[in-house]
Design goal:
This protein is mainly α and about 190 residues long. The protein folds into two domains: about 55 residues, Homeodomain-like (Arc Repressor Mutant, subunit A), CATH 1.10.10.60; about 110 residues, Tetracycline Repressor, domain 2, CATH 1.10.357.10. The radius of gyration is 19 Å and the shape is globular.
Length: about 190
């Protein structure tokens, strides 16, 4: 007997449309200016449906702010190349996802969003650093925190504040310079 894969439900399509529209609106307008009405209009659905699925703007943002940094397995690289490779990867993520930039922009002024950003880095960066060092999460927490200061600070200055010396710096120079600092945070005694 051949089992049929269940067809996607219309509610799944509506939720996906809402999340896509929410990411676009939060990225374009920021958390404060984005509205449920604008998000619903962008998704082509009734605002009441957004409220039904997500309850309020905070909960919608939390759902829209589920980001996978897609951290690569850096354990296979020569140890001296890890910092630069991580910075290069994160530059790709920041440049390729305006919603991720919006998350950073909003985290600076909104406590719930800042908590979401902390959770993303705790769930993704800390385990990566633990794997690289072959140590427990607790043992590498401060190193992971320092790595996060570099990559978040870089993203804030380059993509949100657009600080000219950082925003205009050639990518290979960013990778080299910030990569060296990240490398030190990862492996220096």
């Amino acid at each position: 007997m051949i089992e049929k894969t269940p067809a996607p439900r219309r509610s799944d399509a509506s939720r996906a449309a809402i999340l896509a529209a929410a990411r676009e609106q939060f990225a374009a307008a920021g958390y404060q200016a984005a509205t449920i009405r604008a998000i619903a209009a962008r998704a082509g659905i009734d605002p009441a449906l957004v409220m039904r699925y997500y309850g309020n703007k905070d909960k919608l943002f939390a759902a829209a702010a589920e980001f996978d940094l897609q951290l690569p397995d850096l354990t296979q690289l020569p140890r001296g190349r890890v910092g630069a490779a991580l910075v290069e990867h994160l530059l790709d993520r920041w440049e390729g996802d305006v919603a991720l930039q919006a998350l950073l922009r909003t985290a600076v002024t909104h406590d719930a969003v800042a908590a979401r950003m902390r959770a993303i880095f705790a769930a993704q960066v800390v385990p990566m650093v633990a794997r690289l060092r072959g140590e427990s999460r607790a043992a590498v927490a401060s190193r992971a925190g320092l790595v996060s200061t570099q990559v978040l600070g870089l993203a804030l200055c380059r993509y949100v504040l657009k600080l000219p010396p950082v925003a205009n710096m050639k990518r290979d120079e960013v990778v080299r310079r910030v990569g060296a600092t990240v490398q030190a945070y990862l492996f220096a005694v």
